[in-house]
Amino acid sequence: MIKVRWIVIFIFTGVLCGPINPAVHAAEKRNQLEELLIWKMSDELKLNPIEEKKFTEIVKSLNTKKTELNQKLQSSVEKMSKSSSAKLKEEELNRYRKILQNYSRMAEEEFDRLKPLLGAERMAQYLVIKQDLTNRIKTMLANPEANGKGSKPLPQPKLIEEK
Predict the structure, then answer these.
(1) Could you tell me the pTM of the whole model?
(2) I want to staple 47 with a disulfide (CB 3.0 to 4.6 A). Which of 5, 37, 52, 153 is the partner?
(3) DSSP category for residue 154
(4) What's the pLDDT tens digit per position in 48-69?
């Protein structure tokens, strides 16, 4: 099993530092995560420099598209919540469905663009690593208490009374 625990630790310790603007902070963290994923995948898949460059271009372009589509989905939901008539809501629901279909196709596009570059063996390895990392991150986000396995809870604070 490929060890990616240190990646998750690195990601979550890095989340604690950063700019105050949430949008900038989120974008920087997304870029850091993306760079880390690309570096780790390149290393694990033993990509040569040319393959690594193509891999980087593909992953970054796919992630940019996913981010744009996700923003459109969020914007569409916001428009639906502000729509006053059923007709406007129905139109926005149709737009949302089309955006959702495009977002769903991104997984196929990822597969179709990476498989010719990686070949069957490394593509399978890529998918295993990606799934493992995704599951670990989801687990950590869903149950943050489980991250500190074996750590003792903090003691109760002492009350100091001033006389």
Answers:
(1) 0.68
(2) 52
(3) P
(4) 999 999 999 999 999 999 999 9
